[in-house]
Amino acid sequence: MKPFRLLALGLLLSGAASAWATPDGAKLYAQNCAACHGENGSGGIGIPLSLPSFQSTVDDAYLKRSIRLGRPGRVMPAFTQLQDAEVDAIVQHLRSWYRGKAPRFDTKPLRGNAQHGKTLFQQHCAACHGQHGEGGHGTGVTLSRPRDFPIIPPALHNPGFLASASDAMIKHTLVTGRAGTPMVAFGKKGLKDRDLNDIVAFVRSLERQAPASTASVLTTDAAIISMDSPYDLATTIENVRKAVASNNFVLIREQALNSGLVAEDKEDPKQHIIYFCNFGMLNQALATDPRVGLFLPCRITVVERAGKVRMLAVNPKRLSRIFNNSELNEMCDQITKMYTAIMEEATL
Amino acid sequence: MKRLRVFWFALALSLFWGSAQADELMIVRSAQNFEEAMSTLQAAIAAQGYKVTKVQRVDVGLEAKGYKTDRYRVVFYGKPGEVEALAAQHPDLVPYLPLSIAIFAEEGNTILATARPGLLKQFYPAPALKPVFERWEKDLGAIFDTVRETK
Prior knowledge:
By secondary structure, chain A is of the alpha+beta class. Chain A has helices spanning about 1-20, 25-30, 35, 50-55, 60-70, 85-95, 115-125, 125-130, 160-165, 165-175, 195-205, 235-245, 280-290, 315-325, 330-345, and strands spanning about 225-230, 250-255, 270-275, 300-305, 310-315. Chain A starts with a helix and ends with a helix. Chain B is globular and about 45 Å long. Chain B has a 5-stranded antiparallel sheet.
């Protein structure tokens, strides 16, 4: 009986230990962050987190809030599904790349003249961060395309940033800059302490304004675009081909939905996929955000069921939301309209 | 004025909370170069019982039209029998079938991206589909873990 009790106690303790075990920050980083920020924090799609000048200008509170809130419309998603302990573990892992002591910043608001700060912002900051703090263009994804900056200048007029950064942190970054990035040390550029406070006051004042366009995300609940056709299957397919061409797309290939899954003679001709592309648009989309490729090439499926013919496509306007990239908004909206136009034309 | 400030900030945060959460997109980085990662991906897909139905060579198409690009493919895959059965029972799901993963080179590494099947759960709330999407999610997790962990 005694060995049984010991075994039971051992199992109980090991279960409790694993339940209370500290999350593995390195593993969580690899799962959630490395795809964008690089395996060792060297950057890529996301900013280089291991850069000493980054680590020395942000406190843990900023990192944790940034993970939680992300940057709406600016690719960095909100990791709402992580437990607090997991976020802490990730931040601890990020700090393992830094030999210095993590800074701590006062959370008290700084007082300054936002109006004067706006003038200074236009003179010193707007060239990189945008006239209204909306941030630089691009996503940071290289895809072997040249970029204007080694990092994309962050959007300061973003609810995720403003909720994460304290005034003292923003000021410290202004004073010291970030070596290894285009962010210069304004403390050494002749700006006085009062000027820096004024710039911080202006940045903070952005909270009182409507969010920048770069923080916007398209909203629609429709997951698909579909339209019934008054024609038979063959005629509808032919009409879609013609409409594709007249909307400046080229046909890529056509296949049955189950092509590649069954022998050719078992393919279902009543579920017919038409793939098409506008290469200029494709190039632009991938240059903006290569992740969109997972919904490419463009496609309309023509389906016949019980004598009724229907055309279906994904709704790019709804899918744009998953990329959290405001620069895709216009493009996704445009492709949604084009899908609709092609379907309408095919049913004329 | 203060009320207005609170309103805008709450609006901005609500937009964010409702629209930009990390659980709609799965993205993973492989330390392998593109060819190796592609090979690992295809093997991982097969190991989970799926069949690659087509590899769309996006880079080849772009280069043929004179555009400069790095390696970029879209891998389509599905389970024989399952795709047809789902299309028959849930025709609105057809635009999302077969499943796909974008795979592209980023300098010496490779990045893979796909929509999380949980997203489809929002689009198609039919109870019969829930276990299907959950299985896809689990299988995709295993596929992406393999790609991420294979050096």
